[in-house]
Amino acid sequence: MAFTRTRAAARRRRWTAVLGATALAFAAGGALAAPATALGSAQSVDFTTRCVPPPIAGIPPIEGTTTAVISVDNATPKVGDTVKVTYSVTKPAASNPVDLALPADILTPSGKVVLGGAQTGAVSVTGPKKNPPVPGKGAFPGFSMTGSFTVTTAGAITLSPGDYNIHTSYLMELDTPCTVLNPPAPVSETVQAGDQPVPNERTLALGAASGAPGVRVTVTGAKFTPLTEVTVAARAGAAETADRMTVTTDSEGGFVARLKVNDLATTGIVAYEGGSWNAEKGAGPLPYQVIDDTPTPPNSQKITATVQAGELSMTQAGDAVSLSAVDFGQGGSATGALQTVTVKDFRGGPAGWSVTGKVTDFTGPGGAIGADKLSWTPACVAKEGSPSACAAGSAGPVGSGATLASTANGTVTGGEFTVDAQLALDVPAFTAPGAYAGVLTLTLS
User: Fold this and answer.
1) Domains in the chain and their CATH numbers?
2) Per its UniProt record, what PROSITE patterns does this chain match (predicted)?
3) pLDDT tens across 66-108, in order?
């Protein structure tokens, strides 16, 4: 019986030694997966932590310096965006103080990232239950925890390391809470949040579609910024004429203007906020024609030519693409080319255009290959003489949405454009043999 008690006591001492080593290991940081790479303005910071080991360890609270870095996946978000945050301890201040080795995958961290500046609060972060074996008296690697927050306010938002906890699943389920002394810890990352773009709902209406030179046309605007000065102007194609005036909107963003139109070349009327045309803060153009009522001199003929605005359209050379085959057991890229797309912008206005694409999963005998496995490398060429320059979209996955090509807004836009793309579908090595098909949908806007 005495022998049994002695063995039990020895076992408790071993457990206490192991648990004590675990608690001390995380007093100044912890040990899990390798830290993530910092993005944006992320910088490593040092701060003092106080960790309280589990009572069973029999170790008093321990203070030490933790080195950590906060990184984000988007350093310039908009209000309403979700930002992923990674809290990485890169250099624990302590090592395993005993000869007993700690096994792999027993440690799970959690913690808080403190927000400051334009938006305050705390972001909950957690890490995986994963760590390499730690030899006796060996150094501890760093660990990472991730979480996310939604941007609610525009401006500079600071991120600082906060308190964290280490949960140990070895022999017993235990926690080692670690708090930041003299909070807040130094700022490790700053994101610059912008305002969410407001949809342009501004509208115009004309009292008439034509008139003689010098006749005033009634222009009615709605949903402009309340109590703001608005320019109402006539246009000849994409260029403004000398026929213009300014009005101030009412408390609901509406206005009524009486614009005198003289220029015989007038094709439309616009209204906008600010010193010059801005498609995001304007409305129109609405078509308007000046009818020349000047009497024709004797023995003469009046000759009139009209340039009519056309449409924005898109055509494609075909509706099927066959990618190259890949071998079962090897997989790899099934490649091919997008059927050529032709965009014609004959509107004669200031607005640009974009072509976006999205693709479904590729289904076949072995199930589905995800839509995110299809990538493209776009190319776009403008026909000689086109007012607009064409910009190809970025190379990368198509998935649920990606830009194929676009043109920017400008004073004069339009033209004819040829759009192509090289396609590549990443097929897993042991995908069941057979044909896999998905549908790529292109949208012109």
Assistant:
1) 2-193 (2.60.40), 203-290 (2.60.40.230), 312-429+436-444 (2.60.40)
2) TAT
3) 899 999 988 888 888 889 999 998 877 655 555 677 788 888 8
